[in-house]
Amino acid sequence: MKPYLIAAAIALAFGGAHAAAPAPRAENAYLSQQDAAARAARVSNVDYTLDFTLTGKESFSGTTTLSFDLSDASQALTIDLDKAGITSLTVNGKTVAPQYNQWFITLAAQDLVAGRNTVTIAYTRLHSTNGEGLHRMVDPVDGRVYTYSHFEPAAAHQMFPVFDQPDLKGTYQITVSTPADWVVSSTMRETSVQDVDGGKRWSFPRSKKLSPYNFSMHAGPYKVWEDNSGKYPMRLFARQSVAAQVSPQDWFKYTRQGLGFFDQYFGIPYQFEKYDQLLVPDFLYGAMENAAAITFAEGRFLHKEEMTAAQKQSLAGVIMHEMAHQWFGDLVTMKWWNGLWLNESFASFMGTLATAESTEFTNAWQGFYSGGKQSAYVQDQRVTTHAIETPVASTANAFDNIDAITYSKGASTLKQLRHLLGEEVFRQGVHNYLVKYQYRNATLDDFIGSLAEAAQRDLGGWTREWLYEAGVNTIAADFSCKAGKVSSFTLRQSAASPALPTLREQRVRIALFQQGAHGLALSKNVAVTYKGAATAVPELQGAACPDLVYPNYQDWGFAQVRLDKKSFATAQSSLSKVDDPLLRSMLWQSLWDSVRAAQLPLNDFLKTVLANAPAERDYTLLGDIVDKVRSAKGYLDAMGPSSYSGKVGVQLEQMAFKATQAASADKNFQRRWFSAYLNVASSPAALGQLADILNGKLVVPGLNVSQDVRWEIIGRLNRYAYPGSTELLAAEQQRDQSDSGQQAAIAATVVRPDAKVKAEWLGTIANLQTRLPFSKVRTAMNYLYPAEQGALNEQSAAQRLGGLGVVDQQAGPVYMRAFGAAMIPATCTPASVERLAAAIVKLPDLSTGTKRSLLVTKQEDERCVAIKKAMAVF
């Protein structure tokens, strides 16, 4: 059922004067869209007064006073609260016995009144250790305790009693008691800090209206940096033991640039008065857009040596992404979780635009093309592809479709819509939307309606094609030449498959190139709006007959490009002769797409790599090539040993190491090439070189062997059981006892080709009651079975597949997202594919997310088998 039909059904169910009383809420941990809509129809003007007592111990206590208007007091009402111990409950001044099932409190109708209600709940709860709710971490270096909150998609009720749905916005006034050396960050800046009983009492003013998942509170003995050089006061927080790894000047610079850009672009000043950013441990995702108190994953943004250009660009991009959310997501918020895609797509689009236009990383769109957009193309060609806009039945399903389609296809769709409508029309439509719906909730129709009004055109057809239909189209140039000139030119569009037949409208640039004495030269390019199966392009008639045609020049559109035979041959032979780095990226991608489609043998692709990669001088594109080499090596390893894989593996090692040595004058290129070397080194000679670099016997000029690099080397040596690697691991654990060192040690331990080690860690992963923080369990999952350890993978494959249904029932979505991605066995053989196919049939009742993981694993295993078959050398 389409989302708009679901909305209509809900309105019918709850809007009629004589509608039947709604069924009681289901007794489980999740909130359905239907129940959320029923509650939102009755509740309004929500306000929270929150009082927390934090001691640093494993549990915390709180008192919530929740005030709200109730339009209908004839039915019971639920308040969300997860796994707490309730010490008292009063409703409108009356003490009542809690009716509580560990997921939500039910308030009896007789205790409620039509009009203003006040509910006060005192409770205790364990801190979480899985990154949701109020997470607690004990720093292994100094024993200090840190806490932070994380509520997306619907985990605020893991910290305090709340109407945990985005369309019940509220105001929040908080007071927090903490140990004396702690600091507290929340949506507002504190108004007072008092010394109380050996600790501190932090008081904050009432916030502006926010959805529960946008509110936050973080507390601990954080190191704090401040900067007041911009329009808004900025602070940066990090654990004391990692403070030396933080580069606050970079954080403040990009933050200041972004706030200036977004103030101007949106035409609405930043609304939340101050801008805090916190680096936090054990984080589930890259970052989270809590209003005015944004959290970032330490593991992604902390580095034990000076950041490379790529790391700085990543930092700038994520800062901009989360900052865009302060307007689009926090100021204006989706009504329900089906709108999460628009929230993330818009932030991905605007984050890239802001990075390109307000920082030194003017090529940010090239990085977007080779990173997020390629992930979206891959995702959109899987059997699990889905429309951008999809129904979300309950909070259990909120993250089912949060993937590269949500983030990067959605962002690409907005990017090409901006080209279709015009940049200023698009910006005006966004401004109008934010002004109209600020501090409110809005829908996709509200957003599209604002753009349509600004553009003065109907976007209904565009919306149906792009947002409600799945799949990626392919475009190809169909042309003929006479007497050296183009005589006819048609742009052809094909559907993803018979099951996904939609053809779409979008605007692209078509470029023609000719071989010349100095390489490929652009001879002509035109902008074309196409739709349907065929669009004639008369503007190209009479142009010089091209050696290469690229029908998505400058990457305006979202479509797979199928090169014609002549253009493909030109691309394969002339990569180094293409001056434009974005076009070079796109041609490299065309070759890699052909490998993944089992049309171009992998060995032919690797010949192209060996011939062209060492000469690459574009830093962003080199990173893309290195990633493709890593993936190619993964395929070779999964296929099993052969004389070819051994030979080409050594060639890749030698290429990467020579390039590392040659790049000594440029640390960015050198570190990128050394990363490539680390990812292909597997021969005894290469592993020996790594060991010599680690112990100082081999010095590579310019290369800084930082703590991070030491761990990467130790991980690689253990992966291939290099002699003495276990002793190196033990010594490094003594040398680096930090949290990141512990994570690296787990990775290096579980990756060893040792059946006993695998079995022990498999037991730890399977123990859902383990006290090991989930961040470390997830690390073990990700490193347990590298591609070349197919035989070890097989030893537990049947056990893991056989128990998948039980684990799926017992574990939550956070656990299963990691388990499904890393632990479903696939070993690049026809037997492995058959085993996965059988599991799909045997396990029809898996959760949506786990079922998708199983389907994707099978499809990618089939792809590996097909790539192997296409290689005559195997």
Give the uncertain stretches in residue-range form.
1-19
Main pleated sheet: 8 strands, mixed
Q: Percentage of helical residues? A: 40-55%
User: How would you write the strand order of the largest sheet?
Assistant: 5-4-7-2-1-10-13-12
CATH class annotation of the domain at 332-467: Mainly Alpha
Query: In the CATH hierarchy, what is the architecture of the domain at 332-467 at level 2?
Result: Orthogonal Bundle
CATH superfamily of the domain at 332-467: Neutral Protease Domain 2
Which strand-content bin applies to the residues? 15-25%
What is the CA-CA span between the terminal residues?
47 Å
Structural class: alpha+beta
- Based on CA atoms alone, the radius of gyration comes out at 28 Å
Domain Aminopeptidase N-like N-terminal: 48-213
EC number: 3.4.11.2
Keywords: Aminopeptidase, Hydrolase, Metal-binding, Metalloprotease, Protease, Signal, Zinc
Organism: Duganella radicis
